Amino acid sequence: xxxxxxxxxxxxxxxxxxxxxxxxxxxxxxxxxxxxxxxxxxxxxxxxxxxxxxxxxxxxxxxxxxxxxxxxxxxxxxxxxxxxxxxxxxxxxxxxxxxxxxxxxxxxxxxxxxxxxxxxxxxxxxxxxxxxxxxxxxxxxxxxxxxxxxxxxxxxxxxxxxxxxxxxxxxxxxxxxxxxxxxxxxxxxxxxxxxxxxxxxxxxxxxxxxxxxxxxx
Length: 217
Prior knowledge:
Elements: H1 2-14, H2 17-41, E1 47-48, E2 53-55, E3 60-62, E4 67-70, E5 73-76, E6 79-80, E7 83-84, E8 88-91, E9 96-99, E10 101-105, E11 108-111, E12 116-117, E13 121-124, E14 154-156, E15 161-162, E16 167-168, E17 172-174, E18 179-180, E19 185-186, E20 194-198, E21 201-208, E22 213-216
Parallel strand pairs: 1-4, 2-5, 3-8, 4-9, 5-10, 8-11, 10-13, 11-14, 12-15, 13-16, 14-17, 15-18, 16-19, 18-20
Antiparallel strand pairs: 6-7, 20-21, 21-22
Helix pairs in contact: 1-2
């Protein structure tokens, strides 16, 4: 109820009457639709907007006050073709996601508290096929038929901000309070309080507690 009242207040402050009413109706509709999801996932305060897909929910744990704007796709993969996995997706409290966030997991994806996702983001701890070391995938094998790789999983620390169009691959740990700039490909670990950017991403700045500022590396 508090979230709906807040949405009503914001809508009338920002929009003309017609658009405010439409916005309130839309929010209220998806809020009501989210109620059984809250109960099923034991996730108080959960709100998921239009066009969502949740797969493998027995392997999904969502904390309090989760918000997803639209086009959310979360999949935990316990099996693929003849492969068997033990996936685990854990999302902490007060996590917000924009449009078109896709999380795919066959091992482990942990997302901390107060993490902010932008839009068009992919987080996946696996890939189709193997392209280094022994037993690499042959080009004549259809990509969809290649076995899924298994990584050490993905950990995203508390208070991290992930901007638009970011890809985070398997075997990556992102420390708490990091900033992942738009259009970054994250394929290595970063310590807490780091601003990273690029494809592949590299550390650009780190937060200095003494000066209370982000300092270039």
